[in-house]
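[audit] Reproducing an earlier prediction to check determinism. Same input, same settings, fresh worker. If the tokens differ from the archived copy the diff job will pick it up downstream; this log only records the rerun itself.
[audit] input (233 residues):
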Amino acid sequence: MSTDDISLPPVLREGDRLTASEFLRRWEAITQGAGRRRMPDLKHAELIDGVVFLGSLATSDHGERHASLCRWIWLYAEQTIGCRASRATLVVCPNDVVQPDGMLLILPEYGGQSNVTGEYLGGGPELIVEVTGSSSSRDLGVKLELYRRSGVLEYLTILLKPNRVIWRQLMSGRHREITPDDDGLLRSRTFPGLWLDPDAVWDQKRSLETALEQGVRSPEHAAFVRRLSNPKR
């Protein structure tokens, strides 16, 4: 054991019970500098209800869906003042630190409900996106409950086995599923103009941008942008 190893905090292990501050201390030690060699394959770790969960390697299917959905929310944010797409570490509360596949949020100065906690995003963003395969029991169980408690307004899950898109909206303290409109598109209630074609999630011949382009040209999106153009300071 080197001198560097002795001076570093313990590594993260599945099932450890930690506070958010201790989790972040260990995570930063593992992912920076000399600590990388201690857990070189670790790419993803989360703390939920004070318990450590270590992620598995992402499949190609997961990676493709993840990339296209991150681009989808990024394009919306680019065309909507006061909104930002992110894939940052999220410190929800003292015992919860998660790494969602994607987030779309309204900036605090524009009336959004998230905040910055030190170097990390804090609180409950308006929309969280998770692409879920082997982690489905966690994403649809303890994380769904965590996002409910933290006031995440919408939760979009892309299930890989079986292929399914579930978009939930927080209503009366519960996340309830949003159903497609008559044209088959799913529409965000929190972000007007954020439209999703569920079939395009799976069909490589279709593009998520098609429905999104229609959404950001809608009167609802224009009204939303006008409202956000007068930020709350």
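[audit] rerun output stored. Observation attached for the diff report: The chain has a mean pLDDT of 87.
[audit] end
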